[in-house]
Design a protein that fits this description.
5-stranded parallel β-sheet; about 450 residues; alpha/beta; globular; Rossmann fold; Helicase, Ruva Protein, domain 3; 18 helices; 16 strands
C-alpha cells in the first residue's frame, strides 16, 4: 500500500473490525473503529479521517443496504468532499454501484482479497489528499481575492473626501500608485479600495510588508525558488510576484528597502519578468503595482538612499492619506465604528460616548493615527463597566493628551519626531523590541533598520 492515511471503519461485526484493524495497522497512519454508526459525526469532527470504510448493512436491516445509504447521506452532509468506501457482500454489488452514484468512492466485497483491499484504500487516501489540497488552494485563492464587500475608508472630512474622489477617478486605470501617509493612517485599506475599484478587482491581491523581509530572503520571497536551489528548498515554490501575476501587488514599507534590494525590484518591474532562484528560464509576470510608505521618498532620493528610477516607476500617481489629527469629526465617526465592532466581539452593550469623552478624543493628537484610535477604543470597551464610555476610559501616554496647540517649529521635523517616537517606544516597552515595534505600528525588522539609521 503506497499511501498511508487516517481511516475510520464502521461495521456492526466486531470480528470484522478486529480483522481489518490487524490487517491495516502496518499500512495506515491511524485507525479508528466503531460498531455504532450513530457516532459518525463524532469521529468526523474529532478524528478527521481521510477515508471512511462503511458497511452497507447493519442489524436493523441486514439485507437491503438502506442503512448504508442513509449513513452515506449523513456523511456527505457533514463533509461533501468525504471519501467513503462501502463494504458489501457479493450479492450486494448492484447496490454498491448504486451507492457510488449516490456519492461513495468505491466498494470492497466481503470476504475481501488483501491486495485488492489495500489497493482500493490506497487510491481512496490519494483521492482524499487530492481533494484536501484542492480545497486548500481554493481557500487560499479566495483569501487572496478577498470578499465582495467594499473596503471602508470611514470619514466625511474634506481631506478624506478628496482621497475617495481620487480613488474613484483611478477606477479605470492600471497605473502604478504610491500611497503616502504616516503609520496607522490606513494605507493598506486605501490600497484594497484602489484594487476594489480597478479592472483587476476579480484577481488576486498580494500584500507584502517589505520591511519584514530580511535581505538574505528577499529574492526567494519575491521571486521564488526551484527545488534544490538551497539547503532547505525541498520543493519548488513560486514567489509573491509570480503569485500576484494577473492581479495587484501591494508593496508596503517600500521606503525601508536597501539599495541592493531596490535594484532587484526595479529590474523585475521594468522587465515584467522574474527568475526563480536556481532556475534558468525567466517567468513573465503581469502585475498592477501599488506601493506605500511613511517616508519622504523624494528626500531619500536627494540623499542617495532611494533610487530615482525606481521612484519614477512606482509613483505614476501619488495618493496622500491625511493623519487623523487633520480629519476633525472623523475621529468620532471612527470611534463609533470601532465601538460597535468591539461591542459585538466582546458581547458588550455600550451605547456610546459621553460629551466629555468625545471632547477628549478630539483634543488628542493621535500620533498613531487610526490604528491607535482602534486600540484605544478596544481597550476602553474591554475595561468599561458602564453603558457609556467616559473620559477616564480612554488612557493616553502622559504629555500627549493636549491637542490643537501651536507646536514649536523644531518639533515638526519629521526625522526628529521619528527618532523621539522610537526612543519613547523603547522606554515604554523597557527594551522589548516586539512590543516597541507594535507601539510604533511597524514591523520588528523595520524597527531594527530605524535603530541602525539613528544609531540607537
Amino acid at each position: 500500500m503506497e499511501e498511508k492515511g487516517k481511516i475510520l471503519i464502521i461495521d456492526d461485526n466486531e470480528d470484522v473490525l478486529f480483522a481489518l484493524n490487524l490487517l491495516l495497522e502496518p499500512y495506515m497512519e491511524q485507525i479508528r473503529v466503531t460498531t455504532q454508526p450513530t457516532r459518525i459525526e463524532h469521529f468526523m469532527t474529532t478524528f478527521h479521517p481521510d477515508v471512511i470504510l462503511l458497511d452497507m448493512n447493519f442489524q436493523r436491516d441486514a439485507i437491503s443496504g438502506q442503512e448504508g445509504f442513509d449513513y452515506l447521506k449523513q456523511i456527505l452532509r457533514i463533509d461533501p468532499q468525504a471519501v467513503v468506501v462501502f463494504m458489501t457482500a457479493y450479492a450486494d454489488t448492484g447496490k454498491a454501484v448504486q451507492a457510488i452514484k449516490a456519492g461513495a468512492t468505491d466498494f470492497i466485497s466481503k470476504p475481501w482479497e488483501k491486495e485488492k483491499l489495500l489497493a482500493t484504500l490506497s487510491a481512496a487516501v490519494k483521492l482524499s489528499r487530492s481533494r484536501q489540497e484542492v480545497g486548500r488552494l481554493q481557500n487560499e485563492v479566495q483569501a487572496l481575492k478577498g470578499d465582495d464587500r467594499i473596503p471602508e475608508l470611514i470619514g466625511n472630512s474634506p481631506a478624506m473626501q478628496k482621497v475617495k474622489e481620487t480613488i474613484y477617478k483611478l477606477s479605470d486605470t492600471d497605473a502604478n500608485l504610491l500611497i503616502l501617509g504616516e503609520n496607522g493612517t490606513g494605507k493598506d485599506l486605501a490600497a484594497r479600495m484602489l484594487r476594489f475599484f480597478s479592472p483587476r478587482r476579480e484577481q488576486v491581491f498580494i500584500p507584502i510588508d517589505l520591511g519584514s523581509i530580511p535581505e538574505q530572503l528577499f529574492e526567494s520571497e519575491l521571486f521564488g525558488y526551484e527545488k534544490g536551489a538551497f539547503t532547505d528548498a525541498r520543493k519548488a515554490k513560486p514567489g509573491r510576484m509570480e503569485t500576484a501575476s494577473g492581479g495587484t501587488l501591494f508593496l508596503d514599507e517600500i521606503g525601508n528597502l536597501s539599495l541592493p534590494m531596490q535594484a532587484k525590484l526595479l529590474t523585475a518591474i521594468e522587465k515584467q519578468c522574474i527568475t526563480r532562484l536556481g532556475a534558468v528560464n525567466p517567468i513573465h509576470i503581469d502585475v498592477r503595482l501599488i506601493c506605500a510608505t511613511n517616508a519622504n521618498l523624494h528626500q531619500l532620493v536627494a540623499e542617495g538612499k532611494f533610487r530615482q528610477d525606481l521612484l519614477y516607476r512606482i509613483n505614476t500617481v501619488e495618493l496622500h492619506i491625511p493623519p487623523l489629527r487633520e480629519r476633525g469629526e472623523d475621529i468620532l465617526l471612527l470611534a463609533t465604528h470601532f465601538l460597535n465592532q468591539y461591542n459585538r466581539k466582546y458581547r458588550k452593550e455600550i451605547k456610546g460616548l459621553t460629551r466629555e469623552a468625545k471632547n477628549k478624543l478630539l483634543k488628542y493628537e493621535w500620533p498613531g493615527n487610526v490604528r491607535e484610535l482602534q486600540h484605544t477604543v478596544e481597550r476602553a470597551v474591554i475595561l468599561s463597566e458602564n453603558g457609556l464610555l467616559k473620559p477616564d476610559d480612554f488612557l493616553f501616554p502622559q504629555g500627549n493628551a493636549a491637542a490643537h496647540q501651536p507646536a514649536l517649529t523644531e518639533e515638526l521635523n519629521l526625522e526628529k519626531l521619528e527618532k523621539n517616537a522610537i526612543e519613547r517606544a523603547l522606554k515604554v516597552s523597557t527594551g522589548n523590541m516586539s512590543k516597541a515595534a507594535e507601539l510604533l505600528g511597524i514591523t520588528r525588522f523595520a524597527l531594527y533598520r530605524k535603530l541602525e539609521k539613528w544609531g540607537l
